[in-house]
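Schema walk-through. Below, the input block comes first and the output block second. Nothing else is stored per chain. Lengths vary across the set, and this one has 97 residues.
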Amino acid sequence: MPGSGILQSMKTKYEADLTISERGQLVIPKATRMRLGFTSKSKIHMIESNGAVTLKPKPDLEALDKAFEELRGKGRGRLEKFGFKSVDDYIAASRGR
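--- output ---
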């Protein structure tokens, strides 16, 4: 199907032949590691399905939690000056409820 969105999204962006070492290790090419932001400490999620293996970056949930914690409370007091008691009040008002 020419122009099919599904077929276009399945196009290979990078392909390489890799060899598994005697210890079961696999080297991901440097260009791919750099593109995906992998470092020596990166966690990777593996999915085995239908005879194929897919590797995906696993988000650093601790770093994400820390970032959210740093943002917590930053907006406190700002809604009150516009007459809203909470974020829920603001959302309800913006949706016309």
